[in-house]
Specification:
Blueprint: H1 6-20, H2 26-36, H3 41-53, H4 57-73, H5 81-94, H6 98-111, H7 116-129, H8 132-140, H9 153-166, H10 170-183, H11 188-200, H12 204-213, H13 215-218, H14 225-239, H15 242-253, H16 262-277, H17 285-296, H18 303-315, H19 319-343, H20 347-360, H21 365-378, H22 381-399
Length: 400
């Protein structure tokens, strides 16, 4: 671990352990590793990943600012090949290319299959992007390289169990997930995998019994607890006990003391929407949830979050707010997709999109500035300078 002191390594190892168990302390230990060794590649990479894994726009922006400062100030000429790949993966995701980050992490897992961080972060990327095949095979392809006595092997089994379930191997998922939790009782991702497997087999009573029996292992001390309560509520909903579903919602999913993080608000919106579709009166819960979404003032970042915010606004009969959010995201897409092509290095796509935009809107400082950046990427300094002059001239005309 380049530029990493023994103290920083200890904090890093603790942070990795907390990450694999979904414990809240992961951020504290990762930041401690950076404080102990500000130029540590892996400590800064881990901190960047953490800023992205919560799907919080503001956390991601802060992570990008910190990581950019690290890259500017750290001596990176002597880093190891694997560290360089982690730098590339974190940079890709921070720049908006989550698929590119997943591919790089996959390459790490091929050459270094016992890199638990690459597997864990790659697994979550597969989850965010909905790739059932990769959820199964990223971890499955690495398992044979692990010693079964390794303390992290059981946690890898928990990830593999979830991948098996998402790929439709329900019985095998249950078997592997139960084995994972047998090794680590508080493996909440492994518990989550078993819960999924029972649900997909229609075994709702088994699922309730399993979660009840293990309540002490998953209901506190981890940031997956609300999501697993959501699963519990879905089981109860299948039994028709909607009063109990609402009780779970109020006690565990969303209430006045909730943190208001996106991943928890997703579950709240999803659960209320299911109750709405079932014709259940949810009282004033939609209004409170819509207030929570509105208070976040999120910009465009993760569409899955936006969909659930729209659910909350519609459920609260605040259609104008839902429509405003949709219009905002549509405008963002129109203005940002050339940006995405530029950052991904897809210069032909960027050129095509910019040609379309300048053809429709020849007077646009933004469009000409983007054309200048594309010319920079292509090494055409004369074109870049000309496009910048045009952008400045249009901007002056607009402001004057």
């Amino acid at each position: 671990m380049t530029h990493t002191s023994a103290e920083a390594v200890r904090h890093y190892e603790k942070a990795l352990e907390h990450l694999l168990f979904f414990r809240d302390e992961v951020t504290t230990e990762a930041r401690a590793a950076v404080r102990a060794s500000p130029h540590s590649v892996m400590a800064n990479v881990l901190t960047a990943y953490l800023g992205l894994l919560g799907t919080e726009e503001k956390d991601a922006a802060e992570a990008r600012t910190s990581f950019d400062a690290f890259r500017r100030g750290a001596p990176l000429t002597d880093v190891t090949p694997r560290e360089r790949m982690h730098l590339a993966a974190a940079s890709s995701w921070l720049d908006g290319d989550i698929h590119g980050a997943g591919r790089i992490l996959g390459e790490i897992s091929v050459v270094s299959p016992r890199d638990a961080l690459a597997l864990a972060v790659g697994h979550q990327i597969d989850f965010f992007t909905g790739s059932a095949t990769l959820l199964r095979d990223r971890v499955g392809g690495a398992l044979s390289a692990w010693d079964e006595d390794d303390p992290h092997f059981g946690l890898l089994l928990g990830m593999y169990a979830f991948g098996l379930e998402e790929a439709g191997h329900y019985s095998r998922s249950e078997q592997v997930g139960l084995a994972a939790v047998e090794r680590n009782a508080r493996d909440v991702w492994g518990i989550h995998a078993v819960v999924h497997a029972y649900e997909m087999q229609g075994r709702f009573a088994d699922g309730i019994r399993y979660l009840d029996d293990r309540a002490g292992d998953w209901t506190d001390g981890n940031y997956l607890k609300v999501h697993n309560w959501w699963h519990y509520a879905l089981y109860v909903l299948e039994t028709g006990r909607t009063d109990q579903v609402l009780a779970v919602y109020d006690d565990a999913v969303h209430h006045e003391g909730s943190a208001g993080v996106a991943m928890e608000l997703l579950d709240a919106a999803s659960l209320l929407w299911r109750l709405h579709l079932a014709g259940v009166d949810t009282g004033g819960r939609w209004a409170a949830l819509a207030d929570a979404w509105a208070g976040r003032e999120d910009g465009a970042y993760y569409v899955f979050n936006d969909i659930h915010a729209v659910m909350a606004y519609v459920g609260a009969d605040r259609t104008l707010e839902a429509e405003r959010l949709i219009r905002d995201r549509e405008a963002w897409i129109r203005s940002a997709r050339l940006e995405a092509a530029l950052r991904a290095g897809r210069h032909d796509v960027a050129r095509t999109l910019l040609s379309e935009r300048t053809g429709l809107r020849p007077v646009s400082p933004y469009n000409w500035g983007a054309r200048a950046r594309l010319a920079d990427h292509l090494g055409d300094t004369a074109r870049a300078a000309a496009d910048r002059r045009r952008a400045r001239g249009q901007a002056s005309a607009v402001s004057g």
